[in-house]
Design a protein that fits this description.
CATH topology: Rossmann fold
Number of helices: 8
Order of helices and strands: EHEHEHEHEHEHHHE
Helix content: 40-55%
Number of strands: 7
Shape: globular
CATH architecture: 3-Layer(aba) Sandwich
CATH class: Alpha Beta
Largest sheet: 7 strands, parallel
Length: 252
């Protein structure tokens, strides 16, 4: 791609204050998109906005809890007033809680479901109308290899990601005639904050890396490059699918 491939496009990324959200923001900025960055931590958003500027891009920041219906509605109004219509929506915000199923409280279970799944419904309900009637739109949902395989103590996380994959496929069919594509990106093991407990434990880290066919953790920049491609015109025939970027994990 080149640095003008997404020129004139407004791209909203949830969970944009760190990790994969940050990497995708910088990648899209380098390809000309104007970024709308949202998360709950204003300070971290400001830091990412500076990185976007250093990459030659522009951005607006908005703090919101996107699992909260009233806050999403307020976000949509604020974004429309300041930035205009959104053409690219990347549903990246997510959380994880590892426990045996008998150890979860209902509040814990519903909290992760709200962040990982219900927030995607709320964001799509608000921002899909921005794309309709324009002949172009891109929605990327950050799924996971845990939408394809699973592990012990992942009942909650996997259930949200399997459901998100189903939402992605159904919504792609719903919006295909509008020229709006809907795809999932399923990251495997990436060196992000969510995997800090493994990264900081040498024994666990070595065990984990030994299971990755390519023999290393993923680089967040690799997710950014994939997201930028899926948002471009050259990816207009790709919809309703989920792209594994996992170093060969799910091939085993």
């Amino acid at each position: 791609m080149n640095n003008t491939a997404l020129k004139g496009r407004n791209a909203l990324i949830t969970g944009a204050s760190k990790g994969l959200g940050r990497a995708m923001a910088i990648a899209l900025a380098k390809n000309g998109a104007h970024l709308v960055l949202t998360a709950r931590d204003k300070g971290k958003l400001e830091s990412v906005a500076q990185e976007v500027a250093d990459a030659g891009g522009t951005s607006d920041i908005f703090t919101a809890d996107i699992a909260n219906e009233s806050e999403v509605l307020a976000l949509e109004a604020a974004v429309t007033a300041k930035t205009g219509k959104i053409q690219i929506l990347i549903n990246n915000a997510g959380t994880n809680l590892r426990k045996n199923i008998t150890d979860f409280t209902l509040d814990e279970w519903m909290g992760v479901q709200n962040t990982n799944l219900n927030s995607v419904f709320l964001m799509c309900r608000s921002f899909v109308p921005h794309m309709k009637g324009t002949g172009y739109g891109r929605i990327i949902n950050m799924t996971s290899i845990m939408a394809h395989v699973s592990m012990p103590q992942r009942t909650l996380y996997s259930s949200t990601k399997f459901a998100l994959l189903g939402l992605t496929k159904a919504l792609a069919l719903e919006l295909a005639s509008e020229g709006i594509t809907v795809n999932g990106i399923s990251p495997g093991p990436f060196a992000t904050e969510m995997n800090t407990p493994i990264l900081q434990n040498p024994e666990l880290n070595a065990q984990f890396v030994s299971k990755i066919p390519v023999g290393r953790w993923g680089k967040v920049e690799e997710i950014g490059a994939l997201a930028a491609f899926l948002c471009g015109d050259d990816a207009g025939f790709i919809t309703g699918t989920d792209i594994l970027i996992d170093g060969g994990w799910c091939a085993m």
